[in-house]
Amino acid sequence: MKNLLIALAICTLFLNCKTDQSKPQVETAKAKDSLLVAKKEVPFVWEGANVYFLLTDRFNNGNPANDLNYDRSNPTGTLRGFMGGDLEGITKKIQEGYFTDLGVNAIWFTPVVEQIHGDTDEGTGNTYAYHGYWAKDWTALDPNFGTRKDLEILVNTAHKAGIRVLMDVVMNHTGPVTDQDPVWPEDWVRTSPTCDFTNYENTTSCTLVKNLPDIYTEKNDNVELPDALLAKWKEEGRLSNELDELQLFFERTGYPRAPRFYIIKWLTDYVNDLGIDGFRVDTVKHADENAWAELYKEASYAFENWKRKHPSKVLDSTGFFMVGEVYNYGISQGREFDFGDKKVDYFNYGFQSLINFDLKTDADKGYEAVYKKYSRLLRTKMKGLGVLNYLTSHDDGAPYDKERKNGYYAANILLLTPGASQIYYGDESARNLTIEGAEGDATLRSFMNWQEIDSLPKTKELLSHWQKLGQFRRNHPAVGAGRHKRLSKAPYVFSRSYIDGDYRDKVVVGLDLPKGKKTLLVKGFFGNGTKLYDAYSDSEVEVVNGLVTLESNYDTALLELAD
């Protein structure tokens, strides 16, 4: 099946095959000698998406010629300088089928707008803005990450492969002040006090850390553009164009020329021009929540405008998507985040989903406890909404399985838990998260371990497990967005079912099964005589007396209807 999917991807990407790209074409007829196999359309559902999150600078170096810019050559702390990853590197991995093999249908990469040019030391080692969260100019891309054309190619290549693109956006703060990067005007940013995080006021109207100027997202006063930005645009020969576009934006919307609306315009330009499918929004709880509703409104307008201009490139009718990072939000909290003195329902302010910080601690409770809990919550107080589950990330210093000892269990608990899944780059290959000499979150951000994937059999085996589960999730919305039900306690077998209009999807999964001959109970879910296909062992079975019998050396079964 893997080779067939790669062949189809190559055909679509490079031979311009005449396939319907209104929705991703997903192979469901299993591995056969001929490409002439039956296929069915699988609807894309953000609520059950399989998202791959990567640090742009740390994933793959597609163009070594752009590794050094703005004389960013000062010595840094361990893993705190640029290492060469870029947009071209991501595109190459899309073309190679890496994401397709992993079952990924959305890619989220760290911000690629122009970063501060200088370096700074805030106590964890001298640091450059390799991570992308220290913006200097939202209207330009940082040459260390690539060009606007590189971003356009990435989006087009992803879309041709049926993969959505989530752009990481920051509206809460600028980058730190350095000798090369002056502070923004005082009517744009506050530089004190530093947040205490004990109530709403000292979480939103403050700076996250020292020397990280905070945008006045709550103010409606008109402000002038910074002189430094105007001078930069003039030097680059685009001053007149940028001013003209701003004039048109403010005339169309009627917004005041307040700081957040400038940034909203600049961020949504990428949607309008390139067809970005969604935003992952940084530091959500540290800004005025109304700003996010306004960002979503303008991004949705821009997305629909892009669709009208590029009807042949539209994947489907899915609207613009926003997922927010409300740090320490968990699905158990339901819709509202509690600041102590105030509760905010961010789902009322443009977000369809929030990153779920609960799973990394829930994971040790076992499969059924987690699956049942999440299925119940997503059908009761979270009905119609979504969460993005994760186990490791770029800034969570207490991730699940930091020593990388339970990679197979991690795959099962992440990729089979109801909700959307976020694979952090290297989860699938046990990339080291404990780097000697790295301080703070830098240890979470080593370069992708491609050499281990290419050379170590154990790494290849682990990756294969993630690939099988990932493809099954992508091919079946029931896995992430469906209703969960346990069918058998020992061996552990469960079902998932999903209904959306005329579309029906149902699967059965078995975990921790005995190797060799095994029997799975499917009574009441699949009828006698039903032919099923186990996507894990690549074998077909038939339901007899409410049971299916498998003969394989695997402890996992992924059962779907056979074609």
Instruction: Report the CATH architecture of the largest domain.
Output: Alpha-Beta Barrel
Number of alpha- plus pi-helical segments: 16
CA gyration radius, whole angstroms: 24 Å
Specify the biggest β-sheet: 8 strands, parallel, barrel
Shape, principal axes of CA atoms: globular
Strand order of the largest sheet: 3-4-7-10-11-14-15-16
Question: At the fourth CATH level, what is the homologous superfamily of the largest domain?
Answer: Glycosidases
- Are there runs of 5+ residues with pLDDT below 50, and where? 1-39
Quantity of strands, as a count: 24
Helix content, binned percent: 25-40%
N-to-C span: 14 Å
Strand content: 15-25%
Structural class: alpha/beta
CATH topology of the largest domain: TIM Barrel
Summary?
29% of the residues lie in helices and 20% in strands. The chain has 563 residues and is α/β, with parallel strands linked by helices.
